[in-house]
């Protein structure tokens, strides 16, 4: 399980999901020494063939946001009280987990008891015409029952147009799992674009904001080809191919005002990977696109 380092004190986690810091300082020094040597042309020290990432087993969460950070077993999120949803969710998606057998899909969505100000409720979504859209998808955690249940907290849910959630967003989520299987491991950060005015609100009690768009950024740090890519997609039906929405991580950061990987990599490596969002390095699926256009977009 990926460990997530907190940028500030978390309030709690469900099902024993509070993450403990384990040897971060030593792991960070070792990892930085390796990569600074590697990218400066010097001889890098020996490392295991199955290396984890720049900071050992620690993941550094995004910065520049205002929400309450909560760490679960498989992912972390930052809950924005004003919008009544997460401004980001972050986790590591690994091939070894995706290849395990799926558990049973949980039934029903639950108010998140770990949000100190109170999360949205299921009544906010009922009858709204909007899907309860996962930010951290169930399918990314279906191999672990406890982690799968945590994806059904309403802190991880956002109002998504039905033909968006079950259309282009579904296509991107499925491709993300395909890419993780292909590349071994991906850093994933997802959320609503909160720098644009919402399309309105749902729910009389909590007035959950309806985002105008959503983003997803992906980072592949494993050899032989390290790379990153981002997407910003309007919260509506789309007949465009996914590469139309592809961009660099730098561009997503400008749109969202979020620094996604500020503490994860040496500055020069971060600059290089975040500036290049080449969709040619990420195999898209014509079959999934045709399914979206021919079937998924027709959901009522």
Task: Name the descriptors.
single chain, 300 residues, alpha+beta, Extracellular Endonuclease, Chain A, seven-stranded antiparallel β-sheet, 8 helices, 13 strands, 26% helix, 22% strand, disordered N terminus
Give an overview in words.
The protein is α+β, with helices and mostly antiparallel strands and 300 residues long. The protein has one domain: Extracellular Endonuclease, subunit A (Extracellular Endonuclease, Chain A). The chain is 26% helix and 22% strand. The protein has 8 helices and 13 strands. The chain has helices at residues 24-39, 95-98, 122-125, 145-150, 162-183, 249-256, 267-275, 286-294, and strands at 3-5, 58-60, 68-71, 76-80, 85-94, 130-134, 157-161, 185-192, 201-202, 208-209, 213-220, 227-234, 246-247. The strands form 4 sheets. A 7-stranded antiparallel beta sheet has the order 3-4-5-8-11-12-13, with helices on both faces. Strands 1-2 form a two-stranded parallel sheet. The longest helix has 22 residues, at 162-183.
In short:
The chain is built from eight helices and 13 strands.
Topology summary:
Elements: E1 3-5, H1 24-39, E2 58-60, E3 68-71, E4 76-80, E5 85-94, H2 95-98, H3 122-125, E6 130-134, H4 145-150, E7 157-161, H5 162-183, E8 185-192, E9 201-202, E10 208-209, E11 213-220, E12 227-234, E13 246-247, H6 249-256, H7 267-275, H8 286-294
Parallel strand pairs: 1-2
Antiparallel strand pairs: 3-4, 4-5, 5-8, 6-7, 8-11, 9-10, 11-12, 12-13
Helix pairs in contact: 5-8
């Amino acid at each position: 399980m990926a460990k997530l380092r907190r940028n500030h004190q978390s309030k709690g986690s469900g099902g024993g999901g509070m993450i403990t810091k384990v040897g971060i300082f030593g792991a960070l020094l070792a990892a930085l020494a390796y990569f600074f040597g590697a990218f400066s042309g010097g001889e890098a020290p020996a490392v295991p063939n199955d290396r984890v990432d720049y900071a050992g087993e620690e993941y550094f969460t995004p910065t520049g946001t205002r929400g309450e950070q909560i760490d679960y077993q498989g992912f972390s999120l930052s809950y924005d009280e004003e919008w009544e949803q997460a401004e980001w969710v972050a986790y590591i998606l690994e091939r070894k987990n995706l290849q395990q057998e799926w558990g049973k899909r949980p039934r029903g969505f639950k108010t998140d008891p770990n949000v100190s100000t109170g999360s949205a409720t299921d009544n906010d979504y009922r009858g709204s015409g909007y899907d309860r859209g996962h930010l951290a998808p169930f399918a990314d955690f279906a191999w672990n029952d406890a982690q799968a249940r945590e994806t059904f907290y309403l802190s991880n849910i956002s109002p998504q147009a039905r033909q968006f959630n079950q259309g282009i967003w579904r296509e991107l989520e499925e491709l993300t799992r395909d890419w993780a299987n292909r590349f071994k491991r991906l850093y994933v950060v997802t959320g609503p674009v909160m720098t644009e005015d919402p399309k309105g609100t749902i729910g009389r009690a909590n007035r959950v904001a309806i985002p105008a768009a959503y983003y997803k950024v992906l980072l592949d740090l494993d050899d032989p080809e390290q790379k990153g890519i981002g997407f910003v997609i309007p919260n509506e039906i789309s007949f465009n191919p996914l590469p139309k929405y592809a961009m660099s991580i730098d561009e997503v950061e400008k749109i969202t005002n979020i620094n996604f990987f500020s503490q994860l990599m040496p500055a020069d490596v971060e600059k290089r990977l975040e500036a290049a969002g080449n969709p040619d390095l990420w195999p898209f699926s014509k079959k999934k696109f045709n399914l979206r256009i021919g079937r998924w977009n027709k959901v009522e």
